[in-house]
Amino acid sequence: MEPELAAAFGRYLLTVADDELVLGYRDSEWTAVAPMVEEDVAFSSLAQDEIGHARLFYMLAGELLDADPDHLALLRPKGEYYHARLLEVRATPRYVESGEHLGGGDWALAVARRYLYDLFDDLRTEALLGSSWKPLAGAVQKVRREETYHLRHGATWWTALARGRGESPARLAAVLDARWPDLLGLFEEAPGEDALQAAGLLGRRTSLLRDPWLERVAARCEPLGLPFPWRRVDGGWELMVDPVLGGRQGRHGAGWDELYEEMTMVRRLEPEGVW
Amino acid sequence: MTDDQRIEEFKQRIRDGHRVEAGDWMPDEYRFRVSRFIEMHANSEIMGALPERDWILRAPSLHRKLAVTAKIQDEVGHAQLLYRLVEDLGKPREQILADLIDGKSKFHNVFHYPTRSWGDVGIIAWLVDAAAVISQAALQRSSYGPYARVMRRICWEEAFHLKHGEDIVLTAVGGTPRQKALIQEALERWWEPLMMFYGPPTPAEQDKDLAWGIKSRPNEDLRQEFLGKYVKRIREIGLEIPDPALRFDEASGRWEYSPIDWEKLAQIGRGHGPASQQRLGFRRLSYEETGWVRQAVAGSVAEMVA
Amino acid sequence: MEVYEVFRQEKEGEAMVHVGSVDAPDAELAVQYAREVYSRRSEATRLWVVPRAAVMELDDADFLRPPIERTYRMGEGYRVTIAKRRQLQAREAGHGA
């Protein structure tokens, strides 16, 4: 692969790896505090899968960028992570030593975010299956086989919350209403995706995944009476909200400051050490 | 047959090594004790996950992040297995969790302490789990069949934890002075809780759980076994144990150590440990914030979808 | 929430073995939880997940181990045949001599 393409593709793969790492991080925060103990065990596996996928993508990016996967995961500067801003938001309560814990556990956010992200990720990995870079195509096949289970779990909870007793449907609708702009930020591109698509490294650039995703999500909202801010127009979709952009360029919100600090604090004690 | 005769016959069956199953007739005292014993164990697993879970987020490599997550997932899984046993003895899950949060039921002393560094992650996974493995191996012979079976599964999983913990410790101790210091400092804080782990040296005749066969070995025997296995392993890698009185006495064949403050342990058991209330407070918060979810699925999902 | 019993086949061809139970709101989540709790280290080639309500338990000692002898069904009832064979062997050996 020629150097410029390798650099651009490595940079693109970091967006994928960072998405998986940050989602895995936030989902792993449900360990020991999920709504039911059996679900706790299940959700922890989902989080581990994401981190495992992240590791795979960091290894691949590392080959192209000549970098160690752990270095990529834990030692880049704060402004050089390229995940979507949707994923860095904390959805769990936070333990504070003094006992004045921070609330904020929102299972509706955890479920909706993960499921709608997985619907996007399914489109993204599908577009990578035919990549002209064979190591990636092989890795993506394995990832997709694990993700089948994620989609099944997500679909079950999506329906359970939409149709559940009590506050559940209202909470789901409220989370969606608050997060549509963040969700649409998933389709922000990394630099150079047009060249990557032209070279056959990517089957379809990230922005082109948006319309199929809008279709899928509409199909999952309509039957359950969940509103969504887009509608069909001639030949496509019209959005009624603006996406929150910046994540793919390294610009993030307050959730990232807190996350980055915590994620890197031990490694930074001995950045080059063996842990 | 009178009740007393029935109870005597039951006790004899236990002495003969028979196992009790969930649907069997059991004396009220046996049912009460075994349920409470398992409940405390289950609570310890779920509460034990709390000090450790923050370190998932802070793990210094992707491999460690995965390993720590899997280890804590196992602990939650153990809680699940054990909660099911308590439920099958007649206590609903919501009641079990409510009692835990309200301080009406106990969890192991070792989980009432704060964690302060990556060093704690290694020391807990290695030595606290090692201590647990020794008592859990003995519980595989419990008179209560379902508990004995779950203990076999738990012991199998704990074996992985020990290896994982030891690996973290050896890697850090073999690393830079700063990394080694993390482990040494953590060991110094965890030594006292470890020495208290098995409880006071209650004489076998006075230990009711032993009499019913719920557990099979006295506390001090377990502590002696732990010391016999691990003191050498700790010292030979260059770590110092913070008890100058700790030594093996050849004449008696026993380990001697500085006196332990058993009243302090009792206080911790009552919820006055350094992090007890903070931990219970967090459990209460997370449980309350997810109440609506349990309510949402209280009927079946299939009903809703139809 | 209902209790579901879980059975697991560890290797191809082996029997399904009971490994424990899960609480779940319904069958779909029960299946997912069963995998997590009883097979997350890839210990199973196959799982059965069954509502506890569908399981019938029998533990009556008279029913399972009836008191009247049935040695005609068991190997130990036929140890006498070894002695009978020895007697005939001895008799035939005596004729041959």
Give a structural overview.
The complex is a heterotrimer of chains A (275), B (306) and C (97). Chain A has nine helices and two strands; from the N terminus they run ααααααααββα. Chain A has 275 residues and is mainly alpha-helical. Chain A has one domain (3-269): Ferritin, core subunit, four-helix bundle (Ferritin). The longest helix of chain A has 30 residues, at 134-163. Chain A starts with a helix and ends in an 11-residue tail after the last helix. The model of chain A has no long low-confidence stretch (mean pLDDT 97). Chain B has helices at residues 3-15, 28-58, 62-88, 93-101, 118-139, 145-173, 177-196, 208-211, 219-235, 262-272, 276-289, 291-296, 301-305; strands spanning 247-249, 254-256. Chain B is globular, with a radius of gyration of 21 Å. Chain B is built from 13 helices and two strands, in the order αααααααααββαααα. Chain B is mostly helical. In chain B, 42% of the residues are buried. The longest helix of chain B is centred in the first third of the chain and has 31 residues, at 28-58. In chain B, α2 runs antiparallel to α3 (62-88). Chain C has a three-stranded antiparallel beta sheet, with helices on one face. The model of chain C has no long low-confidence stretch (mean pLDDT 90). In chain C, 35% of the residues lie in helices and 23% in strands. With 97 residues, chain C is an alpha+beta fold. In chain C, a hairpin with a 7-residue loop joins β1 (2-9) and β2. Chain C is built from three helices and three strands; from the N terminus they run ββαβαα. At the A-B interface, α2, α3, α5 and α9 of A face α2, α3, α6, α7 and α11 of B.
Strand element count of chain A: 2
Sketch the major β-sheet of chain A: 2 strands, antiparallel
Structurally, the number of domains of chain A stands at: 1
Q: Specify which chain pair forms the largest interface.
A: A-B, 61 and 60 residues
Helix content of chain A: 55-70%
> How many distinct domains of chain B?
1
Shape of chain A: globular
Q: Can you say what the CATH homologous superfamily of chain A is?
A: Ferritin, core subunit, four-helix bundle
Mean pLDDT of chain B: 93
First CA to last CA of chain A: what distance?
33 Å
Please tell me the CATH architecture of chain A by its name: Up-down Bundle
Give the tally of β-strands of chain B. Answer: 2
Q: Strand order within the widest sheet of chain B?
A: 1-2
